[in-house]
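Changelog note: in this version the structure field was regenerated for every chain. One regenerated record is shown below for reference.
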Amino acid sequence: MTPTLNQPQSGNEMPRFAGRGTMLRLPAADSPQGLDVGFIGVPLDIGTSLRAGTRFGPRSIRNESVMIRPYNMATGAAPFDALQVADLGDVPINTYNLLESVRIIEAYYEALSPFPVVPLTLGGDHTITLPILRALARKHGPIGLIHVDAHTDTNNDMFGEKIAHGTTFRRAVEEGLLDCQRVVQIGQRAQGYTSDDFQWGVNQGFKLFTAEQCWHRSLNPLMEEVRTTLGQGPVYLSFDIDGIDPAWAPGTGTPEVGGLTSIQALEIVRGCKGLQLVGGDLVEVSPPYDVSGNTSQLAANLLFEMLCVLPGVAYR
């Protein structure tokens, strides 16, 4: 007997300002058993370096997801017609201890490994990607990466600390979590502490496309190049909302001018169709700086778009 697939709660069944408080108003689940995809919140902000507040990101993204309907009219994707999707709730991080929180996050995602569930994560600051990659790399081996961000997050340390939201991908390389010939960074910009701040990842084999290389153009051709670079094999998509210009996404802790547009963000995520995505995250949404809710709304839509390009999605 074919199981009934979960559906977002309809706005005609329950007003959108009421009803479920879950991502996309999907059913909540206590276990990944039987799921193809699980939305997971990681309410962490003690890895941030300027403005805090990303601990409130998952809840705010869920709140702003209420307007999203089940069919993607632009791409034809119908994820809920083929995939069993639910909201798995939040990882119970330690509010007072970053390294303990990293351990908790890693253990949580490690516990998902026996299941075929693909995790889509609502951050939380960018520190959270390191423990997620640790768990996924144990399951899949070194992973390809698409990293959208205003920053490379390849600092050697921050205030002498090896783990923080700006060191994530240097640690990931050092720990052998990434297939460095299959790593693409998009949207990096602004200033550095040295003239070669962006060069470390390139020296490891990363392809880097700065924000200036993306100005005034569609990113569809770039994503064709990205898909060629990533090829076959597991891929993780890590999307820092500060990759988007603060005119579109002001609610973040380290905003930088001259960023990507929301349209380019959609092109990037939609351009991942056909890749073997084994997970994704949307990080660095800081609701205290998001008075209109626009940043969280954009984040919610990008997570829905990630869902729409996962392997196994139906098209109508």
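Spot check on this record: The domain at 23-315 is CATH 3.40.800.10 (Arginase; Chain A). The CA atoms of residues 76 and 316 lie 5 Å apart.
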